[in-house]
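Chain A, query sequence.
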Amino acid sequence: MKFLKSVCLMLLLVCLTKVHANFILLPMDDVSQKNHLKAYGITYWCLDKQYKASWLLNYRGGSFLLPDVPEIRKECQIRGVSFEILSEGEANQILDEISSPSQNMETVVLEKAPKIAVYTPKGKQPWDDAVTMVLTYAEIPFTPIYDEEVLNDQLILYDWLHLHHEDFSGQYGKFYGAYRNAPWYIDQKKEAEALAAKLGFSKVSEAKLAVAKKIRDFVIGGGFMFAMCSATDSFDIALAAEGVDICEPMFDGDDSEANYQSKIDYAKTFAFKNFILDRKPEHYEFSDIDMTEKRRIPMEKDYFTLMEYSAKWDVIPSMLCQNHTQLVKGFMGQTTSFERELIKSNVLVLGQNELNEEARYIHGQKGKGFFTFFGGHDPEDYQHRVGDAPTVLDLHPNSPGFRLILNNVLFPAAKKKKQKT
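Chain A, predicted structure.
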């Protein structure tokens, strides 16, 4: 009888535990979280383990709500991520506050861990690119792919694609002026030509256009594409210049077409319109889209502001702007920022510099999918140069700029609501 009572008591405790479940909150405000970047990795890990997760938009910097189980607590402790234990009542109180019409907050259910691909040349190290660097630091798994995989239709295996700082125009990053005699430039040019020939193309520009079109189709079909630095404008330039030779002889062995600017088709681009291509092969610019040489902003004043959207009505831009600060430190790259007048009207500006109104961070929809363009090379390396030492993210675990990248990584995991504006 005594044994039976003990068994009944244990069953009752199990039932009560199930009914009165606890939750883990990963706070993402500027005070409570020791490591914002690894908190995204914890959330991804939970989704990959089939746990439920919610993204609390605009609540304490865009916090994450997870179930309270021992292995999640342990993983947080191992990775150095701050967390708080909430009772069921405390969690419901927070959710009630978020759901109030008077609060610019929203709860977004995260459904599954997205499969991530990074378009990057073979042999590149993680620190050569901000996205691969932060994915590695946050312990979010990804698969490197390049031209062969893209042209063999392997993008269908992935939900999210990042474009490394690539030149899709076939001009080798416009490094000709400064580095044409550098061994690394000569080697990369030879490797690109050999790969293009292997894939059946007579020119690198033709191979890159074919890749850009496959990526375009991936997005139109429902994929998520994130690009930084020169991959942003060179991608659109390649699409707009389809069938037009814009490359000078040092790039593809023959002259560019006469009057090629008049043949550019802006209807084919994702984000940009009415841009003028840069004809000088020795000039480190693709077009007038980029603001790098036009901006006159001292480093100490170089910040951009994240736009504030209605979390309940404009869920997507709100997700992409989640941060513990609205003012983000600026950083440069080959393509640092975008000329506002050259951005299509259906593309959202998520972040802009208030001093000159340049757009730093933009987002749009193409077909069933989405794209985000983020200007600059490395959010914690103000003026990254060839050969610079890699950024050590252990020194920047709360980087607002790197948080924006990880917002995009988790974006495909969200259960979407139709955008109202």
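The mean pLDDT is 92. The longest helix spans residues 2-19.
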